[in-house]
Amino acid sequence: MGHQPTRLEEQPRRRLTPAMASFRLLVLDFVRGYLGENGASPSYGEIAGGLDSSRNQVKVAVKSLVRDRLLLQGDGPRSLALPSDRDAAIRALEGLGFRIDEQARTIAQPITDPPLLPPATLDYVSQIDSDQERDERGQGEGTGGKESGRGG
User: Fold this and answer.
1) What are the CA-CA distances from residue 56 to residues 53, 61, 63, 65, 69 (Å)?
2) Which is more confident, 6 or 122?
3) Averaged over 14-38, what is the pLDDT?
4) Quick check: helix, strand or coil at residue 74?
């Protein structure tokens, strides 16, 4: 009577690569693989069993991945999904500082941090402008005496 290997024991353990150094990335990799093989979302229990961890660790990692928009999660159970290329592009643009308005379908230029100051406005009239206005008014009234008085 020998030991019958379970399904998990039959599969060789995958080696940990540098890209999978954190638990979050392990969870993300597991979900990607599960979605690819089964076409449906795994449960927290299946992820925990596949990664030899607790359901609570998996919940924390999934919550973090959803917050960073590396995974999408619906309201029901088994509702994990991978973001589309469009979602990834929007996340990349936001990371560069662009503002995205999805309702208006517009992309605005990045915001400087801190914002630039508004341009300065002049709240006085310079002396040069005042002299030019007086000269123009004097010429417009038909009094040529002012011009002749300066020349002589």
Assistant:
1) 8, 9, 11, 14, 20
2) 122
3) 80
4) coil
